[in-house]
Amino acid sequence: MVESPGVSYAPVVLSDSPTSMVISVAPEVARTLDIRLPRLWKSTPIPQQPVPYVPVSSTAVQRVKAIAASVKFDPVVASIVGNISIPQMRKDVRYLTGEDPSSGIMSRHAFSKGALQAAAWLQEQFQSTGASCELKPFLRGFSPNVVCTYAATEDTTETMLLSAHYDSRGSFGSIRAPGGDDDGSGVTALLAIARTIAHKGIAFRKNIQLVAFSGEEQGLYGSKAYAREMYELGANLTLMIQADMLGYRAPGEPAQLGLPESIGSLEVMQLVSNISAIYSPELVVGTTRACCSDHQSFHELGFPATQVFERAGPIADPMYHNSGDLSDREGYDFEQIRSIAKVQVRVVCCSLKLLAAHEPSVAASAVRDPPPCGRLRLARVELVSQQVSIC
Ligand SMILES: [Zn+2]
Fold this sequence. Notes:
Layout: E1 12-16, E2 21-24, H1 27-31, H2 58-70, H3 75-79, H4 86-97, H5 113-127, E3 132-136, E4 145-150, E5 159-165, H6 184-200, E6 202-203, E7 207-213, H7 221-232, E8 237-243, E9 256-260, H8 266-279, E10 284-288, H9 295-299, E11 305-308, H10 334-357, H11 364-368, H12 377-384, E12 389-390
Parallel strand pairs: 5-7, 5-8, 6-12, 8-11, 9-10
Antiparallel strand pairs: 1-2, 3-4, 4-7
Helix pairs in contact: 2-8, 2-10, 4-6, 6-10, 8-10
Bound molecules: zinc ion.
Zinc ion (ZN) binds near residues 182, 216 and 245.
GO molecular function: metal ion binding; metalloexopeptidase activity
EC number: 3.4.-.-
Protein name: Peptide hydrolase
């Protein structure tokens, strides 16, 4: 679709099936289509040009594969997230949803005042944990991405990225869009990770980014812009994991962790699955057809990426894209969010330890036979006495 000022576009249905439809609308309508669609329908803009296929490089695949194949239980990594606080998570998500009346947020729809307020608040919260944050605008009218970085203790460009989207969507015709699960839960997990980093004084060998995207609901606009920026800069991204909808647990079902069936890197998925099995056995891991969150933007540009989701199966949350998507309701499970947040941190910590083990200063035998995370425990114990943990 080409933007031509003054040209009017009548909506045209180009194809139609029971599960999908291709329509042509004016660009400004395309960006706000989410508020006109029934709740289980999602819009995805079709690019004006063919999307170039950028495969994940074999070096990047091998790096993730080596980590996934070598993961073993490490009590230090296990204990690093032992203190994630559910009362704090509840407080955080209630601010974002507006269930905390002091926030006054009615909606975090990407064009709303509430989204701008949420972005500024998130920046402040992440910065209070020691991250440097930037509000990065990407498209006129949209609230900005919130990009936060914990700089590496080593001189390296290598980066790992954990993300969620803070924009939300409500019921058709309602101005209330609390987005407690979609994706207040993923953002709350990011905040919990940040607060743990501060509380435990964790320092990272590589750069760690925590990113809250906007414009996800309109077609991944925020993450597309940021992934493109990283691609053009030739970013050295080991992996990215998007957390989108972590909180809902259907009646009678166990706590779960869903990984995408169709979009993302198999190797990152395997790594997350291995880490979850070892460190969070309370989660039943499986695949989901729920798709197309912000990890897609990175995967399309050749970065190893995946998503974590609340269910090994299709979306079951009755409040999905509904103005009733609050945190204080039946089925909203903070324990499940916490378990998944722990998996995210452990993926980062365990990966960094293994990457460190592959560095040239390590004995050649270690390079041929990657050690388990636990082999680096001694160094960490020494650092703990200085009140610093290092991942
Ligand atoms: Zn979402």
